[in-house]
Amino acid sequence: MCLMTVVGCGPGSHDDEFGSAPEASAVLLPVVATAEPGLEVRVDPRIELMAVIQLVAGYPVLGQWETDYRERALAHFTPHSDHPAVVRFDSLSRVGLSFDRVPKVFAALGPLPHLALPEQIHQDVRGRGVGRGEVGRWAAELRDFYAVTNFEAFFRDNSDHFRWLVQGALPTVTDAVALLGEYSGEGVDDVAVVLSPLLHDGGFGMRGGDTEFMAFIGPDGVEEGNPSFGDRDRLGRLVWHELAHGFVNPATARHHADVAATEVVDSVFRSRMRAQAYPDWPTIVNESVIRAIEVRLAYATSGTDGATSVAAEQVGRGFCHVPAIAAALERYEGSRDVYPLLSSFFPELIEVFRRPLPTCS
Hints:
Elements: E1 6-7, E2 31-36, E3 39-43, H1 45-57, H2 68-77, H3 84-93, H4 101-108, H5 123-126, H6 132-148, H7 151-157, H8 159-184, E4 191-195, E5 203-208, E6 211-217, E7 221-223, E8 226-228, H9 232-254, H10 256-261, H11 267-275, H12 281-316, H13 322-333, H14 346-352
Parallel strand pairs: 3-4, 4-6
Antiparallel strand pairs: 1-2, 2-3, 5-6, 7-8
């Protein structure tokens, strides 16, 4: 993890089977970061490269906030909208490389300007038919896009803006990470929260990459032309949500047979989930458990009113199991001597899904 305000991270790459990486420069393009022990809040040039590719490709899963930064990005990169890196992304996004799978690819690549290929591509990406060979060809095109658009100059020109964003978010993120770690017992102590001014109003999470836990978060509004990432009730909840994927998803995978046996096939319920890009049962279980964790953490920070509000929001979105899971989590909270880790309590949470589908309006 990078532990300085502005620092270049990681080794450069050498030639590989997909073409030559640029000659190593004396200083790699830096991330802009503010760090606490075990935690980094940053703007990552790889994710910004991803975002500008998506922006000029017209990718719909991207924020639409009319910020000054977005205008600068459009002015700088739109003349290159027909570049092969943009064209390939547009093609890949139509066959499954979308949503969280895109930042997982970029987070796995080495730092700019080299974008060294990892030994393996994240399993979520491989499952969509995008193997190392395709990513390698795309990485070569991305290196060319980086060079011909002078991405380095664009990123450096905006570094003061990025630094202002990350320092503004650090207190909220620090508190949120500490609370989630205490609640889960999972040792959430190697974390990178990556802010991106162009991402959608929400976030993505993954385990792995530069750190054990990573969250990618976009703004939810504009203040005086600048992207706003929100306060504890918004940014804090997103941090809880995205980082919780790092231990909830593996728990679901470990108990895959028991989870599969609880599958709800109600057509109305499943249709509402698909409409929110949650098509399969393990993903629905992950999302339901994580949203119930949000309820309980809202209770810890805002009392009954906060928890009730978050629960009502989730039920309104169709996550019918959330209140019952939250009730089960209260038992976990009272039995930490028996269940020091939230993941050790997971079989009890699975039992919630064996019950008849709750009413959900």
